[in-house]
Each structure stands twice: as structure tokens, then as C-alpha cells.
Amino acid sequence: MKLNSMRVLDARKIPYVVTEYDASGEFHSATETAQLIGAPVESVYKTLVVLREPPKSGKPLLVMIAADREVDLKLLAQSLGAPKQKLRMATQREAESLTGLQVGGISALALLHRGFEIVLDEAALTLDHIHISAGRRGVDVCLAVKDLISVTNSKIMRVTRM
User: I need a surface site. Which of 10, 26, 59, 86 has the fewest CB within 10 A?
Assistant: First the structure.
């Protein structure tokens, strides 16, 4: 099964490895996903949808952070150069409505032409390879961090605290 994210990588001749796991039943957190695919938790990244308030103040954000971290919205606003701007996490319903993907399967690679601003936490720069959702629950891709940055045109920012 080829997903849009894989087609994008294939078209750009970017090497990747697909890992599938059983996503039926209960939703798995990114930390649980790391255990299911046998990858270090710090190399498995989740993609969160962050909204600006008011909505007319800019595009929604896709923020990729390590499975075991939480996004710091104040730090994200500062990194975006808008410390006074209000940011909030999208609800599950909002995230799924905006992306057309299920939470747990949201992927920046599958949403390249959907008008999102894409941010990657700078902690990813310490890795060679990164695991992210391929755009469907239960399917992950592992690729070089430099390739992920290149194909998604991600902004690299500090958006989490240890």
C-alpha cells in the first residue's frame, strides 16, 4: 500500500523504511508506538496541530516533536517571533477536520500542499534518522532528518523544554 507520503518520498528519490504495526482497537500514543515498532522513543516524532488565535492571524501549524515531549506553546510563539500571539492545541475533532487524517496518523509528509506551516523541534537535529507517521494510523516511515527537513521545508525551532 502506497500512501501519499511515500509517493512524495519516491518522487524525490528519498530513501525511507516503512514500519507497520497493529493500530486496531485502542489509540496508541507516540510513546506506545515507539515500543510497538522497536525504536528509541526520542527518535519517534508525533505531529501536533496548533492553531493561532484569532484564526485569521495565520496558518495552522504542524509541529513535530519527540514522542516523550510536550510542546511549550509560549516557547513556540517566541520562536515564531510572535511572543504575544495566542496559540492553542487543536482538539482531536479540529485536527482531524483540518488535516483529513486521524489523530495518530497525521503526517506533515501527507499534508505538504494543504497550507500548514511546518515546524520541527530542534531536538531532532541530534538524530540521524527519524520515525514519523506516514499518514495513516499503524504506518510509520523512517527517514534521514535532513531529508525530512528538505522535503517538508520545516522551520527548525526550539518548541519543547526538557
Answer: 26
Kindly tell me the burial class for residue 26, based on how many C-beta atoms sit within 10 Å of its own C-beta (0-12, 13-18, 19 or more). Answer: exposed
Residues 6+ positions from 23 with CB-CB distance below 8 Å = 104, 105, 137, 138, 139
162: in domain: no
Number of domain units in the chain: 1
CATH of the domain at 82: 3.90.960.10
In a domain, 87, yes or no: yes
pLDDT tens for residues 18-58?
999 887 766 667 888 888 889 999 999 999 999 998 777 78
Global pTM reads 0.93
